[in-house]
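Shipment paperwork, digital attachment
Item: protein structure file
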Amino acid sequence: MLKIINRFLRAKCILTIAFLMVLVLVLPQNISKAADEVVAVGRPRISVSVNGDSVIVTIKKTENAARYAVYIKSAGSTKYELSGYVEKDGSKKRKYKLSGIEDGSYAVKVKALNGNAGSKSSKAHNFVVSKDNGKDFMILFTSDVHCGVDRGFTYAGLKAVKDSLSKEHNVLLVDDGDSIQGEPLGTLTKGEAMIELMNAVGYDAAIPGNHEFDYGMDRFLELADKAGFPYISCNFNKEGELVFAPYVIKYVSGKKIAFVGITTPKTITSSTPKYFMDDNGNFIYGFMQDQSGEKLYAAVQNAVDSARKEGADYVVAMAHLGNETNCVPWTYVDVITHTNGIDVFLDGHSHDTDYAVVNNKDGQPVQRQACGTKLACIGWVNIDSAGKISTGLYTWNNNESALKLLGLKNDLSDIMSNTVDSVNNKLEEVVAYSDYDLTIFDPVAKDENGNPIRIVRMTETNLGDFCADAYRDQAGADIAIVNGGGIRVSINKGDITYRDIINVHPFGNMLTVVEATGQQILDALEWGCRTTPSSTGGFPQVSGLTFEIHTYLDSTCTADENKMFTGITGEYRVKNVKVNGEPLDLDKTYTLASHDYMLLNNGDGYTMFDGCKVLQESVKLDNQVLIDYLEETLNGKVSEKYSDPYGDGRIVAVEGFEDFR
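Attachment content:
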């Protein structure tokens, strides 16, 4: 019996000890947890009052709140910024004054705080600041600047015009696209220098033109984030969802001005198509393009109607559409005649400076104004206190820029000078290396004065091969043809700088791709070789092609009085043409890469491609083509296939030409 009692007591003791151990382990955690518990803070309620530019946020007393954090964001922004704090003082209401608020639409919200505790944000309150100072307002607009910040008025001159007009008017400044591409300033910084300058000028809004995408989709979206102004477009979308807001409303002179952005649907073919695809080659970005134009018209109308519902007093179309017939059904005329509700139409893309009045679908007149390119003009719109709309151009008709001729000195002139210096330094940056001279000259033959003979206009060279390969590679085309006259300087072996590459292709021609028949390609080769072994700027450097020139045959090419190709009347001297090793099929269609100078503009008399289907139109600068090929495809090292200065045997002269060599 005693043994049983002892076992019972021993077991009870063990249980007691175990219980105490559990208390020791658990109790401190519970105490710590209780110590760390935060006070539940109520959700604040707020109201906002606006008187001119005075904005007061009233915060009602909130349970357990020790102080309040006030956050604000402007229209078009996706992120709230902390404006400041309000301390609790025991009163039923606390007031907070928002300072430094410019005209515009805003949203404000408040969080109640207590130590580490924070409430759920209050409901956002929207408000508008619009100071009616009795001034008329003006809109200045630019388009197709194409990095020409030191041309025409220059950005320094644009800033001076804006500042001068602001003394008597409320002024807004907008851009209608194609600003960040076109010269080394854009090429070498992939557009960033242009965005920085646009921020400094003080743009209020911009739209993407087709060339905003020339550095790739990811890069453009990155640049858009760096912009101190909103990009807008009612038709630029990813898988049906708009990438940017379709419009932005600005508040000027007591009025709501809605700007609706419109980007040309031709962007798909006038920039690099692969930039709008996913990794599987499927298009995921688009511009409401269809053959009828109805998708674009609907997108514009929806944006206009939404802006009107939001209270817009005026709707201004910011468009990159143009007037070219190959843009139908997406020209400015097409859009105006199929929509209503637009008060004035600011346009770009076709580099014209035309003013026109076009009736909308309700028969109401709409003014359309374009402002050219490279800051030769600054467009303006004036809306007076009576609501009368007028538009026109400030024009700079001098060879010297305003910056140089007037000796302009302002914040922008200093920034521009620093930017140009930075670009000049970038031009000397080494980007690649070659063990071989890439040449336009015969490495052996000399003329009577002992100078090297330029042969890139009469026979194949390794630099000609390199350039043609770059076009074919970057376009993804079957073949490429580049005129020898467009290849201006050699690249010496050793380090290769950006300046070396840009000097090869200094003209600013644009990569273009067309569908051409074998017959058209044969005619082009025959035309380009009509003077061989004599020199001609149109001599074809090729990629994806091999052929013979039978120089013992006289050329039978015919031309009109302007030296444009009109036909071939006899035997072809170009023979045995092969495409990637297969005989050229005269009836087959091939994709041909070159530049707009040859394929679209009859450069060097090449008219045989007139009427060809254009697959990619003016998608990338010629020197950018070379840079991207060298950096991305060749990984910065010129390959051995370019070791022979006479090329790798794509073009063979039969009789006569060997004697020249």
